[in-house]
Amino acid sequence: MMPMAWLSIVLLFFFICTASPSTAAVSQKGEPFSRFYTEFQKAVKADDKEKVAAMIDFDGFTWEETESLRKVRTPEAFLKNYSSMFTPTIKNKIATSKPQRIGDSSYFIIWHTKNTEYSLYFARSKQGNFKFQGLTIGPY
């Protein structure tokens, strides 16, 4: 009976050791976004407009709330319109929501009102780091 117990312990140890790298790889896969999002949350909470602007990919940026905000495509325009964009509701969603991962390179914060779906969008840039892409709005 004793050799069987040792064999079970050795096999259990082997499976734990061989399973650990794949588990670590899965948790590390979301780590760059997690670090980015933590910094993004801090910047929004502190109203550090310049830091938030530095975390945006303006080539793909969109803010669908109003016609004038749809035209925000530069850091200067973003800084000018920051308070109109980052309302208490948006700041609260960023502070309290956990973004959902969609595919390998996109994350979303999605919420609904009676007839509307809102989505804050984050994606991996061409350089490989994550950037904030903006707000999309659609029917719900």
**Oligomeric state:** single chain
Task: Give the termini separation.
Answer: 63 Å
Mean pLDDT: 83
Overall number of domains: 1
Topology pattern, helix = H, strand = E: HHHEHHHEEEE
Specify the helix fraction band.
Answer: 40-55%
Number of strand elements: 5
CATH topology: Nuclear Transport Factor 2, Chain: A
Class from helix and strand fractions: alpha+beta
Contiguous helical run count: 6
Shape: globular
Q: What profile does the largest beta sheet have?
A: 5 strands, mixed
The CATH C-level class name: Alpha Beta
Return the CATH architecture: Roll
Q: Order of strands in the sheet with the most strands? A: 1-5-4-3-2
Low-confidence stretches are: 1-28
List keywords for this structure.
Nuclear Transport Factor 2, Chain: A; single chain; 6 helices; globular; 5-stranded mixed beta sheet; 5 strands; 140 residues; alpha+beta
How is the secondary structure organized here?
Layout (H helix, E strand, L loop, with lengths): L1 H28 L1 H15 L3 H6 L7 E2 L3 H4 L4 H11 L2 H9 L3 E3 L3 E7 L3 E9 L5 E10 L1
